[in-house]
Amino acid sequence: MGKSIIFFENLNNGQEIYNYMVEKNLELKGNLIYLDSNPSKFYKSKWYRIYDKINKILKIGIVNTISYFITKKTIIISGSSGAYQKNLSNNIILLNHGWGTKSTPGKNELNNPDIMKNYENTLANLKYIICLSSFDSTYYLNNEKLNSSSKPTFIPLGSPRNDYLVRNINNNTLIQNIEKELKINKTGKKIFLYSPTHRDDKIRSKEFLNELLIQFNQIDKELEKKNYIILFRPHYYSPDIQKEIEKFNNILYVGFDKYKDVRPLMLLSDLLITDYSSIFVDYLLINKPIIFHVPDLEEYSNFRGLVIDYENLLHTPGPKIKKLKDLFLINELSLSQYDLKASKHFFHKYTDDRATERISKFIKREFQNL
């Protein structure tokens, strides 16, 4: 039984590396196994989680699973690490889906023994964590309450999915195709991508979305007057409000269930609106302005925990607003006062389109040493 690299997908990162290795034929002399999951269903349904685990075992193959359990002749590329993966490999490489904003573990998790135990197991299971910059190692899985004798090595090589963004910044054909798919004409209009993160408390999450619907109703007509369009992309953990959004004329629903890949929407947009989501860290790579809609900044910071300072313009390079109607008070001059380039280089060691190549070569070296 030969060696294998198993990709447990996490929002395009694993797929980008898998595709690169197949296309470049890196002469690994082993198997490449790609396993995908739906993160929204995984979060919301325990039955999907059971199905997902069984499905992964079947895709790997029962004989292969037993072999890897015995020999550990695998490298696992994953967005998270559990006991199941540890049973198959001593070489687990984490590709986290979002960097630069939130405490991990969160403040709301510190007194939950089960969650903290999972984090400790993750620390013990991982060999490497591929991140964006040296800043990431200062906060990610770095808490005095985590008791683990084993610490993974942080290696800032970039995020594979961001290669697509950098490569297509000026791809007008791609952008025109996205316009057609969304049935919008961008000529003379300004496109805002609004992508807030979820609230960990389910009650607060519903309250937040209800508050947004009220604010959307208040600004819909003014958006039309200004020739603005908002592409609303709620977090894939958030409750479904597509039907409520569809009643607005100038706010389009572009959720995960409708558009799995957010990157084309990022390229189409002229400006990002977000709150505490790490999407803005990726958005910095395409050199477009950002507005931070933070109506519950103190509450979110106290409950979930943040690793950046919203008064520090290097950390959050854009205007801060409490109400969406305040969008209309922001002009090009006020946006130009923020140094997006400085922030980009704070969060990213590399700002090119070669993260997939760097990580693939790193994995190849590890694989040859198995």
TrEMBL record:
Keywords: Cell membrane, Membrane, Teichoic acid biosynthesis, Transferase. GO terms for cellular component: plasma membrane. One of its GO terms (molecular function) is CDP-glycerol glycerophosphotransferase activity. Gene3D superfamilies: 3.40.50.11820, 3.40.50.12580. It is found in: Cell membrane. PANTHER family: TEICHOIC ACID GLYCEROL-PHOSPHATE PRIMASE, TEICHOIC ACID GLYCEROL-PHOSPHATE TRANSFERASE. This is CDP-glycerol:poly(Glycerophosphate) glycerophosphotransferase. It is a peripheral membrane protein. One of its GO terms (biological process) is teichoic acid biosynthetic process. Belongs to the CDP-glycerol glycerophosphotransferase family. Transmembrane segments: none annotated. Its main location: membrane. The keyword Ribonucleoprotein does not apply.
